[in-house]
Amino acid sequence: MGHRVATLAGVTSDSTAPATDVPAEAAGEWGGTDVQFGEQGARLTYGSYLRLEQLLGAQHLESDPVAHDELLFITIHQVYELWFQQLLHEAGAARDAMLDSSGDANRLWWAQHLLQRMHVVERVLVQQIDVLETMTPQDFLQFRQTLAPASGFQSVQYRELEFLSGAKDPSFVRRFKGLTDAERDRLRRRLEEPTLWDAFVHVLSERGLPVGSDEEITAAVRTAAHDRAAYADIWALAEALLQHDELAASWRARHVVMVERMIGAKTGTGGSSGADYLRSRLQLQYYPLLWGLRSQL
Predict the structure, then answer these.
(1) Closest CA to 251 of 239, 240, 243
(2) N or C: at which end does the chain have fewer Cβ atoms within 10 angstroms?
(3) Which of 176-185, 258-267, 280-289 has the highest mean pLDDT?
(4) Residue 175 and residue 203 in one domain
(5) In Å, how far from its chain's centre is CA 216?
(6) What is the mean pLDDT of residues 39-51?
(7) What's phi and psi for 34, nearest 5 deg?
(8) Contact, 204 vs 290, CB < 8 A?
(9) Residue at which a domain ends, from 58, 78, 97
(10) Taking a C-beta distance cutoff of 8 angstroms, is the pair 13, 43 a contact?
(11) Residue ranges of the alpha helices (H) in the chain?
């Protein structure tokens, strides 16, 4: 018996069971096309849909002779970049939902939902460090010298995520070495576009709360905190943003301890001061007003 599923964009099925239209009220959000599962005549497979040949062929070891743990090191960081891509996808959609809400409770619910998904992904980012720490410092040193001058400091997506979250720093664009034109354009675009914080302030304004200064924004969120019957959605968004901030801080703290465990006080492969630089970033807060509010509740 067939099952109804969303049609894959740009893909047609040669299944012997033809696709049929279904009533709009029964179609939901998936588009209203009835597709039969089955391998007969299909143009997609699990491997082709996920591009597994390209994905599993993207781990190129630089060590010679091959260091056993270099594959683990590459895999972990490639997985991080995939998760960064997903976080950017969710954060951008959450921001746009807040900017386009115009008092629409469904849009604000969607923004909160996406932020909660980000929280789950961010916990995975922290937990992944446990896998990396199964590599001993001696094993890492077998191939570390081949990495220079590459460094996690150069992760464009990570900087995009910081910028989109609200911590914009134009100096990173100037300091990055080896950026492609496309990567530089992406960072500049993030510097120019609204942040999650901008979107949240927009929501406050849409609800008639004053946002002309930091003091007014703090007072507006305090109003939401003390009148959750009227501003439950705003308070939930504020808490979701703070959770995002806290989890980002947890990742930075866990990361610096891992680096100290691996290389001690050595400089980073990209020329940074290594753990000292990472420790200097521990005090970063995306939403200092939300943290400061705790003293005024």
Answers:
(1) 243
(2) N
(3) 280-289
(4) yes
(5) 30
(6) 82
(7) -95, 115
(8) no
(9) 58
(10) yes
(11) 24-27, 46-49, 52-55, 70-99, 105-132, 137-141, 156-165, 171-175, 181-192, 196-206, 214-226, 228-263, 275-280, 288-293
Give 34 or 86, the one with higher predicted confidence: 86
What pLDDT is attached to residue 267?
Answer: 55
- Do 13 and 86 fall into the same domain? no
Report DSSP letters for 52-105, one per residue.
Answer: HHHHTT------SSPPTTHHHHHHHHHHHHHHHHHHHHHHHHHHHHHHT-TT-H
For the chain, strand residue ranges (E) read 20-21, 33-34
Domain residue limits at 259 = 66-293
- Asked if residues 244 and 236 have their Cβ atoms less than 8 Å apart, the reply is no
Q: What pLDDT, in 10s, does the model give residues 67-112?
A: 999 999 999 999 999 999 999 999 999 999 999 988 688 999 999 9
Are residues 28 and 107 located together in one domain of the fold?
no
What local confidence, expressed as pLDDT, does residue 33 receive? 62
Max CA pair span of the chain: 66
Rg (CA), the chain: 23
Q: What's 287's domain CATH number?
A: 1.20.58.480
User: Model pTM?
Assistant: 0.83
| Number of domains observed in the structure of the chain | 2
Query: By percentage, how much of the chain surpasses pLDDT 90?
Result: 64
Cis peptide preceding 149, ω within 30 of 0? yes
pLDDT of residue 9: 43
